Amino acid sequence: MPEPGEKKRAGARASSENRPARRNPRAARSPLAAECDELRAQLDRADRASREMLSVVSHDVRNPLSVILVTARLLARSHSADAAVTRQLEAVTRAGEEINRLIQELVDAHQIERGSFEVAREEQRIDDLVERALAAVQPMCARKQVELHRELE
């Protein structure tokens, strides 16, 4: 007959054999951690590429655009007697300003994503805002033969 201590050891051995094997948490997380690291590296590369693209657009596109806008405005002043030329130069100016606005919206969107966008409150004259809005849609209205009228009180 076995000794009482031997029974306990045999019983302990038998019960540990019946228990499910414990997993090493580090071993189980290792593939997940590696995947997470790879995804983080991909995100960092994409973020860096986005910043570089934004930098190129905001700097390298705006510089020549500024030259175009200044030239169009100067030509419009010097050719103010010729209505057809003035209209064409105003169209160039509006298009350039629209491109400039789109670039600024890209910069703003990037700042919003990064949490660094700041809003500055300032007073605006409503008639100036309406005038700019009308000027922005006027070419489209002319193409569609739509007349716009402004009424401010």
Strand and helix map with partners:
Elements: H1 4-18, H2 25-78, H3 83-114, H4 126-143
What is the number of strand segments? 0
Shape, please?
elongated
Give the % helix: over 70%
Query: Tell me about the biggest sheet?
Result: none
Rg calculated over all Cα atoms: 34 Å
Which residues form runs of ≥5 with pLDDT under 50? none
% residues in beta strands: under 5%
Which structural category do the helix and sheet elements fall into? mainly alpha
Mean pLDDT across the residues is 82
Cα separation of the termini? 111 Å
Report the order of strands and helices.
HHHH
The number of helical segments is 4
Keywords:
153 residues; mainly alpha; 4 helices; 0% strand; elongated
Structure description:
There is one protein chain. The longest helix has 54 residues, at 25-78. This protein has helices spanning 4-18, 25-78, 83-114, 126-143. It is an all-alpha fold.
Summarize the structure.
This protein is mainly alpha-helical. Helix content is 78%, strand content 0%. Helix 2 (25-78) runs antiparallel to helix 3 (83-114).
